[in-house]
Amino acid sequence: MKIDGITEQILTILEKYTTTKEIAMELKTHPKNIDRYIRVLRDLGFVDTKKGKTGGVFLTNEGKYVLKKKNINLITILEKVVENYED
Asked: Which InterPro entries does the record match to this protein (predicted)?
């Protein structure tokens, strides 16, 4: 599966910004829309989220890899999702 569109834009912006507000401003959209994408990306293991003063949204190693390759294997993603929900 190819990574493109808003997903690629968000992952790319996360190399520079770390808050949903900053990402939303960059993409000229509402932060709630970005929140939805971030939740999915977090569930897939591509980003980590941290609350608080030093918190934000951060690319994981998997997220950096996917952004670099621009391609993902759906089986790998399914395994990751199942693994996250078994905890």
From this structure: Tscrpt_reg_Rrf2, WH-like_DNA-bd_sf, WH_DNA-bd_sf
Count CB-CB contacts under 10 A for residue 45. Answer: 18
CA dist 74 and 12 (Å) reads 20
Domains in the chain, CATH or no CATH each:
5-86 (1.10.10.10)
The encoded tokens of residue 4 equal 């493109």
For residue range 47-57, what is the model confidence (pLDDT) as tens digits? 999 988 888 99
Look up residue 34 and give its two tokens. Answer: 């970005």
Structure tokens at 7: 């997903």
In degrees, rounded to 5, the angle at the alpha carbon of residue 79 between the alpha carbons of residues 60 and 67 is 35
